[in-house]
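During the second year of the project, the team shifted from modelling isolated chains to modelling whole assemblies. The rationale, set out in the original proposal, was that interfaces cannot be judged from single-chain predictions alone. As a representative example for this report, we include one of the complexes processed in the last quarter. Its constituent sequences, exactly as entered into the pipeline, are reproduced here:
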Amino acid sequence: MRNRSVSHIFVTERFPIVCFMMRRDVFQAIADPTRRDIIGLIAHRSLNLNAVADNFDISRPAISKHIKILTECGLLTIKQQGRDRYCTANFKKLNEVSAWVDQYRKFWTEKLDALGDFLEKEAGETK
Amino acid sequence: MRNRSVSHIFVTERFPIVCFMMRRDVFQAIADPTRRDIIGLIAHRSLNLNAVADNFDISRPAISKHIKILTECGLLTIKQQGRDRYCTANFKKLNEVSAWVDQYRKFWTEKLDALGDFLEKEAGETK
DNA sequence: CAGGTGGTTAACAAGGTCATTAATTATGAG
DNA sequence: CTCATAATTAATGACCTTGTTAACCACCTG
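Output from the structure prediction step:
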């Protein structure tokens, strides 16, 4: 039962109702390349789910699930407009990732070789 | 067959030998909290596998597998010293994550509310 | 060489992820 | 109201992940 946590427990007189909320962490959310692509798509403009799905070869339900995961971890917010649900990216959430990476930044930038490695990689990829 | 790619194909006269190499991407590697903890552990000093395992409640084989994954994606390098294998972090690899996050940084820092959110989160956690 | 220690591999189990298709819900348009 | 469209849910399947224990290999020490 990983990544789950009880967020609220509502107790009526006779029926304890336990409400689970996925504690989807951002790291896991961005681990999937499709989800990273979705984020890239909606970075500049809000899109409804179908517009997002048009950019991928997978089914709408699959996209729907990805978006659900991104929403659950706080990276996306949904705004309902009639039938359409428009997805907007909530980039502040990426600060968690940024902060984690940044604590190690000094270990690889001290030698000032990051640029060199980046260029090396670029050259390898475009070759 | 996701996350796999044929990296090299050696062909002898009679035996084509296909060598698979896991294309473990860094995002997936750091998605696991245990692996992030391992990285944190060996950030400052090289540790052998048993020393790493001592810090966790899981078995040595489990740690061994995590370290294998981290090695396969380039985040760790192993230096054998007699019986011991010392793990060293290779933080340059984190640049991939950093670069991906950074392309969106302007979206959440423009408003200069990142500090506010950070403090808010801190307060929420220590409460 | 024998035995202990560091570490990996093998076999397996439980649960999670990511996709599918079919059915369902909900909204807007004619 | 009826139909088309936007989107979710349900049921299912294949594969991946993460852990376990037991057995094994490799190296150092006495």
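The longest helix of chain B spans residues 60-72. The CA atoms of residues 32 and 66 of chain B lie 9 Å apart.
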